[in-house]
Design goal:
heterodimer, A: 238 residues, B: 322 residues, Rossmann fold, Alpha-Beta Plaits, 12 helices, 14 strands, elongated, binds adenosine-5'-triphosphate, binds magnesium ion
Amino acid sequence: MNWSVIGAVWRREMRSYFANPTAYIVLAVFLLITGWFFTLNLFKENLAHLRSIFDILPFLLVVFAPAISMRLISEERKSGTLELLVTMPVRDFDVIFGKFLAAFVLYAVALVLTFVYPFTIIVLGDAPVGSIAAGYIGLLLLGAGYLGVGLLGSALTESQIVAFILSFAVSAALAVLVFAAIVIPPPLADIIQYLSTTYHFQNIARGVLDSRDVIYFLSLIFLVLLLASRAMTQRKFL
Amino acid sequence: MIHIEHLKKYYGNFPAVDDISFDVARGEILGFLGPNGAGKTTTMKVITGFYPPNEGRITIDGRDVTEESLKTRAMIGYLPENTPLYHDLTVYEYLKHIADVRQIPNGEQKHRIRTMVEVTGLQHRLGQPISKLSKGFRQRVGLAQAMLHDPKVLVLDEPTIGLDPNQIVEIRDLIRKLGEEKTVILSTHILPEVQATCDRVVIIHQGKLVADGTPEQLQHRFQGRPVITLQVHGAPDDAGEKLLAIAGVETVDREQNSEANVKQFQIATGTTSDPRSDIFRLCVQQGWTLLGMTRRVESLESIFRQLTRRDEPAVPVEEVAA
Ligand SMILES: Nc1ncnc2c1ncn2[C@@H]1O[C@H](COP(=O)(O)OP(=O)(O)OP(=O)(O)O)[C@@H](O)[C@H]1O
Ligand SMILES: [Mg+2]
């Protein structure tokens, strides 16, 4: 890991996000949708809780994360700048990691902006601060996993649309695998369930921070980033 | 400095580079010539470590480009075809970014950027977004980027494309100046460029090497016999035989000429002889009026065309030389 390379790639990607309308649109849409579900909940059930965020957001992320990460490599491959970047003395994994961190920070900013909702709840009544925190940690890890998948999709093609569709498909599959348990007999169902992102997110969001769930997400992220750095160039070295 | 050994690179089943070997000596400027689709860009992509070779190997300063890729990449400055740049950055931001990625120490970055900006004449463009620059200035940014870390080896894919004639001269001078201490490999379609800047020329065609040598060597090796075109007034019909008697003249062909009483000859000579003064003396002696006489040696351009004709398969260099 060479942090000056990672930092340089990260800075350029951050700049690129905020120099274009992308970041603002993404943040606005994210806030609008979460806000809409939150207020709907608030008025309909006259009850303040974060069901909206912790039930719906995990599935929104399946669309949201690929939208953030689809351009990261595809765009550079298309314009040719990728060739210049990877023929400098950099490790492919450092390039990938810098790009991943940029997407992750943008996503984290989006999450932080949704803090207005838990604050409202805390102001309105007694809120379970611990479970809210757990939920957010879960969202952070879940989103990071999908962003990694998105980066892999982006490394595979020079078309952003194709990258989006690929990573959406993979993320969605990981998300709904948890429901396989309903139709598949137990021993196999357990394994399949264990592979599902949603399953581990729900474990974390329940407030019991089990290291196995954290390790699941960290290994998922590491695996997809490794694959992405292999897919970015045809080289054997990282 | 650059050693290429039996390099092969396929795109699927298609051999874009098919068994190419050549060396570039330290401090040499090598012109890499070939028609469109010959495999120049592909070769450069393998040298710079973007693609691994399918077969063969390349070393830079003795280091293998696949085994010690990080080290060889650090030694190379690369200007890819079409000069890809980040258009949302300004010239300064871009060069700063490249300096960061190349891990040039912070203390040296300012100095290096300033030097390259002066060398490429970008002083008044530093604050401009690259998207607003003309093609020629983008090309300069690409060159500045390639030289930012003071590399030992420069790989330039069509460095003067899109430049105006003044800039072309400037960039060529720059490359020649750099070439005094750096090893440069540059691809081009412009033949005068090769003669003006390069110490050596490698011509490839359909992925195969078809010629390798200094511009003079190639001219010498591939030239047909020099041909003298002669126009005289008032020469009799047997003038041809008289010309043929001159030492060094091998064949004489009479050509059509519509002017009255004017005869035109194509006189082929030996590769080393130049009988023009004898021809002149003959004319004076015989009382013919000499209207014109020119000697033509095949240019690099016609050698290039001869070697890379589309309809003919490429003949590897060893067979050509034999
Ligand atoms: N990514 C690719 N996939 C498949 N074929 C390719 C690819 N890149 C190049 N080729 C083919 O390989 C051959 C060599 O291409 P290359 O770009 O190396 O030629 P070149 O000598 O640089 O040509 P030019 O003078 O036009 O730049 C061409 O026939 C080209 O169509
Ligand atoms: Mg080319």
